[in-house]
Amino acid sequence: MVNTKGVEPVQGGGRGGLPLAALNHISVVCRSLQGSVHFYRDVLGFIPIRRPGSFDFDGAWLFNYGIGIHLLQAEDPESMPPKKTEINPKDNHISFQCESLEAVQRRLKELGIRYVQRRVEEGGIFVDQLFFHDPDGFMIEVCTCDKLPVVPLVPVDANAILGLPPPPPACKRPAAATLKPAPPPSLPAPVAVPASPAHCVVPASKAAAGSCVGEVEAMRSCPEHACMRV
């Protein structure tokens, strides 16, 4: 019930699994071979194919969607368990993905097949499901399950088994407690600045007389010429 697009099967599986390749078929024992063939052919769209002639019991093979359906005629139909009337999504079932659940619903209503509808939500992704029975009470599901991504529970091993890209590496940044505080920024050494010289004052008497002696004396006492007069 997940999206398997881009997931390549890996022969042998993982951790010593059997060297399997793919699902080949499911087998269903039925009360009426003719009735079951009609259901799987005309309702589910399976195509009857040739069956080995060496079998000494009645049955039929059908194929579509990459898998086979093998129907077996029950030797004693009356001894089979009573047909289930309640549609329980938790029962054993086979599930098919579909492109339009609305189209499936319309077709089931046209055929008069009773069904129940469910919705699953996971991380903001919604999957819609329809459940109904075949003529012998075996449950069929049709869903939009391809919306759910394949998320391995053991990312490192399972990603390689399923042919998925490796998970992103874990963050190697040390914890805050182990980080050493950075040293304070170094400041430039202070530079001594000489005090500003006192303002040179020219005696008013000399300035008023228009003499330049006061200006020369002021220049001598004021190296920065702060009191130079023009």
UniProtKB/TrEMBL annotation:
Gene3D superfamilies: 2,3-Dihydroxybiphenyl 1,2-Dioxygenase, domain 1. Residues 22-145 form the VOC domain. InterPro entries: Glyas_Bleomycin-R_OHBP_Dase, Glyas_Fos-R_dOase_dom, VOC_core. This is VOC domain-containing protein. It comes from Urochloa decumbens.
